[in-house]
């Protein structure tokens, strides 16, 4: 099983910096494999807790090198919830990479462990009969706690675990 490493985070930063400079990122310092993965960007400001700036990935297995390259940029520049990250934000960014593992179907909405499991929520809205889904990575569930309430919908839950590494790189993309 592949485990998230600091080198993967550095590669995501290298990819974003290369996008802004018009250069090619250096080759990754980790081995390839195939796994579902996510790249999350947060921004620290004025000593406060870092705030989400982008998080996109895939629940389908991808080659890790190309997946981190693609999702580093997609989550930084095309997360519809936020304006694109700008180069001037690089010194304040934190990146987290998640490699998803061990999917399992939940028996009910209480059948999960905060901080260990992430959530894949799938449901049909009763008023419009429209299908919806959301993914919460294990670190999100750990941060939010058990404040997920499910009622008035027929909810299908799947849980996942992930290996993740998070790191702040202040002003450069070099390994510390």
Automatic annotation (TrEMBL):
Q: Which SUPFAM superfamilies match?
A: AMMECR1-like
Q: Name one Pfam family in it.
A: AMMECR1
Show which residues constitute the signal peptide.
Answer: none
What sequence ranges are listed for the domain AMMECR1?
1-176
Q: What is this protein called?
A: AMMECR1 family
Source organism? Zea mays
Recorded name of the encoding gene:
LOC100276378
């Amino acid at each position: 099983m592949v485990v998230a490493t600091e080198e993967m985070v550095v590669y995501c930063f290298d990819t974003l910096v290369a996008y802004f400079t018009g250069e090619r990122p250096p080759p990754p310092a980790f081995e390839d494999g195939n796994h579902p993965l996510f790249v999350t960007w947060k921004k620290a400001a004025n000593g406060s807790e870092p705030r989400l700036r982008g998080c996109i990935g895939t629940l389908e297995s991808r080659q890790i090198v190309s997946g981190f390259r693609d999702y580093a940029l997609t989550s930084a520049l095309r997360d519809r919830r936020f304006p694109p990250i700008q180069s001037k934000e690089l010194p304040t960014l934190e990146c987290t990479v998640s490699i998803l593992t061990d999917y399992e179907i939940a028996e009910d909405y209480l059948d999960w462990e905060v901080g260990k499991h992430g959530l894949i929520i799938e449901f049909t809205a009763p008023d419009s009969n429209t299908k919806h889904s959301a993914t919460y990575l294990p670190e999100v569930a750990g941060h939010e706690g058990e404040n997920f309430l499910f009622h008035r919908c027929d909810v299908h839950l799947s849980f996942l675990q992930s290996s993740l590494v998070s790191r702040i790189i202040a002003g450069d993309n070099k390994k510390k």
